[in-house]
Structure formats: structure tokens, C-alpha cells
Amino acid sequence: MPDIMANTNNGNYPIFIQSGKLDRLGEIAASCVKGRKAFVVTDSNVAPLYLVRAVDALKKEGFSTPSCTVPAGESSKSRDILFMLFEQFNAAGVSRADVIVALGGGVIGDLTGFAAASYMRGCPFIQVPTTLLAQVDSSIGGKTGIDLPFGKNLVGAFYQPRAVLIDPSVLSTLTRSVTAEGMAEVIKYGCIRDRLLFESIEKGMSDLEWMIERCVRIKTTVVQNDEYDTGERMLLNFGHTIGHAIEKVSGYSGISHGEAVAIGMVYAAKTGESFGHTEKGTAERIRKLLKKWQLPVQTHIPVEEIFDAMMSDKKRLTGKFFFVFLSRIGEASAIPTEKDSLFERMKGVWDDE
Ligand SMILES: NC(=O)c1ccc[n+]([C@@H]2O[C@H](COP(=O)([O-])OP(=O)(O)OC[C@H]3O[C@@H](n4cnc5c(N)ncnc54)[C@H](O)[C@@H]3O)[C@@H](O)[C@H]2O)c1
Ligand SMILES: [Zn+2]
After folding, report:
1. Which residues contact 35 (CB under 8 A, 6 or more apart)?
2. pLDDT tens digits, 23-71
3. Which atom of ligand 1 is nearest to the CA of 134?
4. pTM above 0.85, yes or no
5. The CATH number of 4-173 is which of 2.20.25.90, 3.30.70.420, 3.40.50.1970, 3.30.70.360?
């Protein structure tokens, strides 16, 4: 029995969350497709750790297991690597009866998901996320894609996996900073929807499986209500409007997404407090919790630069500008905000630093 069923306009898919579940990948794949070929895509850090286990689990169910290991890192979300995958799918004789497995972090999930979405106009694929960020965020929701030289995630598709297999035990090999990046997203879920989760992390609780399940439930529910990202899904962007701007101004180097989001959440909460949308003291609680995870909570980039980058973001809708504010920990809403007043409030926050 799956732990969670995700319901989408294009069918439902199960999400399994259990330590040790990687060894059951074969059974899950067998329940998804008729073919007996499973093409595994992974990266150069994950391959030496988990590829053999994944392949063994698939072989037990009679799958043949061609695989491809791409270089670890964001640079693999590229046209060259995507087309290299198409060539390898072709050489391995992958058909639409077979399954493509994404074994890795968000980079592998996004890249492989898009490759699966477009090869032969769509082959079944399974997400096996191996970073905390991928387990709580990128493997759920069906967003796939690659980067272009002039922008991140510019080409992609909404394409749902046949199943998501989350094995929290694989997180034990992550570096501290990659774990912390995922924690920034976990804390975000607490901020927008789950006070108990937030408070449990404040108290130092460390039951990863419990935390992951709560985050996955929030993401599946929000995505279910807004599969194509036109409304409620916006709440998942708490801290991301400012975060993305920080990433952009930094040229996507020297600061990771999770770090930028951490800073973004603190400033978004401060801005919310300044508007009177957010309960006083909220920003300070978020700041303290992020610091515990050694995440950055301050930026020295001038507010003008951040604001310009925010306004040029591809998701900026014309006319109304929705900004995600917390009312308190565990409750968020997207509030239509006038650009000039947002800038004034943000400037006040920056001046106070
Ligand atoms: N599709 C979505 O909805 C969505 C949402 C958020 C982020 N993303 C995308 O996700 C990507 C970031 O994901 P990420 O943070 O997982 O990055 P990542 O895939 O680059 O993984 C981070 C690092 O951890 C390594 N790694 C992965 N699993 C490991 C393990 N179990 N043990 C040891 N090392 C391991 C990787 O090799 C890599 O070096 C970005 O490209 C971002 O755009 C997508
Ligand atoms: Zn994020």
C-alpha cells in the first residue's frame, strides 16, 4: 500500500516513504509497467552509493537494467546531456512499455523527467529522489525540465511520474550543506502550512521519515488543487520571490537555492511584519531556526538590485503582483500587493539591517 496517493488530471500515482524501500524498487516498477526494461539515470555521486542496489532490486523482478551516469551538478540539466540520454534510450531499445528511473537529487529528477516526457512523446518514469530537497519537493508535482544558457528551467513539461519511491535512509550520505538546503524547504512547509512541523523542528526533533511525510502531504495537496501552477501553488513560493532574486543577482554561483530561500524567508517575513500582515516576532523565529541549521539569514545585496531582479522574474504576472506572506507560523496567503508599496516596505527592512 502506498503511503500517499497523488491525484492529478493525468491519473494518480503512489508515493512510498520508508527507510530501506530502495530494495523494493523492482516490485514498484513491475506494478507500473508491462515491459521488462528499466533504464536508470543517475549522477556521478549517487552511482557509487546506490546504483547497484537499485539495479539489483530491478533485476530481482526480471528487469534488464541499462543505465547512464551523468556528471553530478546543475550543469547536467542541459541540452547536450538531454540529447545524450535520448541517444542512450535509443541504443538500449527503450520503448513506451518500459520504464525510466530517475535515481538522484533534483537535477536528475528534472532532467530525467523531461527526457521521459519527451522521448517517444512520453515514457513511464519513476522518481527515486535521493536528496532531502528532492524527497520533499522536486520529485512531487510533475515539474520537469532543463536549463538554457540564458535561464534556469526554461524548457520543460508538466509530466507526472508513475510512482515516487522515497527512501529516507539514503539521506545519510548527504553532505551537511546539501541536507541543510533541504531543511530550508522543510522549514518553508512548516511556515506556510504546518505549525506542528515547525515547532517540532524548533524542539530539535529528528524523525526524518515523519518530517518528509508531512512535507510530501502538503506538497501533494497543494499541487492537487493547482496542478498547472496558477493559484494555490504560489504559496510554495514563500521566500522564493526574494530567494530567486538573490540567486539571479549572484549569477547562480556562490549561493545555493536553499540558502537563497532561507534568506528570502526571513526577509519576506520581515516585510510581512512591516505591512502588518504577519504576526510580530515571526521573522525572528524563522531566523533562529534557519541559523540552527547553519543556513544564511542575511544578504548584503542592495534592495534595489533584489527588487529589479524580482520584477524581471519570468513568473511575474502583469497588473496584480501577488506576494506570499505569512499571517503566522503555519498560515500563508498570496496577497495582491502594489509594487511601489512593496518596494518601500522592503527598503525599510533593508535599512533596518
Ligand atoms: N521540479 C521541481 O518542482 C523542483 C523543485 C525544486 C528544485 N528543483 C530543481 O532541483 C535541483 C536541485 O536539487 P538538489 O538540491 O537535489 O540538487 P542535486 O541533484 O544537484 O543534488 C545535490 C548534490 O547531492 C548529491 N547527492 C544526491 N543524492 C545523494 C546521496 N543520497 N548521498 C550523497 N550525495 C548525494 C548530488 O550528486 C549533488 O552533488 C535544481 O536543478 C532545481 O531547479 C526542481
Ligand atoms: Zn525551493
Report:
1. 95, 97, 98, 99
2. 999 999 999 999 999 999 999 999 999 999 999 999 999 999 999 999 9
3. 16
4. yes
5. 3.40.50.1970
